[in-house]
Specification:
Strand order of the largest sheet: 1-2-3-4
Number of helices: 9
Number of strands: 4
Order of helices and strands: HHHEEEEHHHHHH
Helix content: 25-40%
Distance between the termini: 50 Å
Strand content: 5-15%
Length: 215
């Protein structure tokens, strides 16, 4: 099992793995320090309602609501007509029958239609987790720099201790620097051309049975 953050860290540590353990750990500390500083700086200089990614989602939803019409029921409940479909919006509960409002915690296109027509403040209907001030608080804890080795205070017991490497037999062959990709990632990188006869993937015109089925 892998995750995006693990793969991102492994990618940045390809060259660092060749260093001794002390230098390896020091490079990791400096890398996290740079990331922490850059993310905090980006959050500090963000002047939109939400962070970059979520502000883009909010702008797309605003564009999608332009041709929708709303029908009020009570003060906070509205019916939004989107073409031939209709959706129920409850602004007090921040819910929509399409469920995008609840899942994303950002006004969906139907909620946006109501917010724009009622001249409400969209900031009140967005989760605080996506706002720049919350992002800045995430990186309040700094990655402290390391003192020079001459200023370290290490007890004599630790200095006298002899640390041996673990008993490990290296397997034959050159060690891999890149992970083995699963089948779905390998298949995703290959271009699959559609058949010129029927338009389906997985075969070409010569092996297509569309013409024979028509006869």
């Amino acid at each position: 099992m892998t995750s995006n953050i693990v793969e991102c860290i492994n990618k940045h540590l390809l060259a660092t793995r060749e260093l001794p353990i002390y230098d390896f750990l020091e490079e990791i500390r400096k890398m996290f320090g740079r990331w922490n500083y850059n993310n905090r700086r980006n959050g500090t200089y963000t002047f939109t309602t939400l962070g970059k990614k979520f502000q883009e989602m909010l702008s797309i939803n605003e564009y999608l609501c332009l041709r929708m019409t709303i029908e009020p029921s009570i003060e906070f409940v509205y019916t939004v007509h989107d073409g031939r479909r209709r959706f129920i919006i409850n602004l007090s509960n921040k819910t929509c029958s399409c469920r995008m409002f609840q899942l994303d915690e950002i006004p969906c296109p139907h909620a946006w239609a109501v917010i724009k027509q009622k001249h409400l403040v969209v900031d009140d209907y967005c989760s605080d987790l996506f706002k720049p001030e919350t992002v800045v608080k995430t990186y309040d804890i700094a990655v402290d720099p390391l003192l020079d080795e001459s200023e370290w205070k290490i007890s004599k017991d630790i200095l006298d201790e002899v640390l041996l490497p673990p008993r490990y037999k290296r397997p034959p062959g050159r060690p891999k620097k890149r992970r083995d990709k699963p089948l779905h990632e390998l298949m995703a990188g290959k271009k699959r051309h559609a058949c010129s006869t029927c338009g389906q993937l997985g075969h070409n015109r010569r092996s297509c049975g569309f013409e024979s089925r028509r006869k």
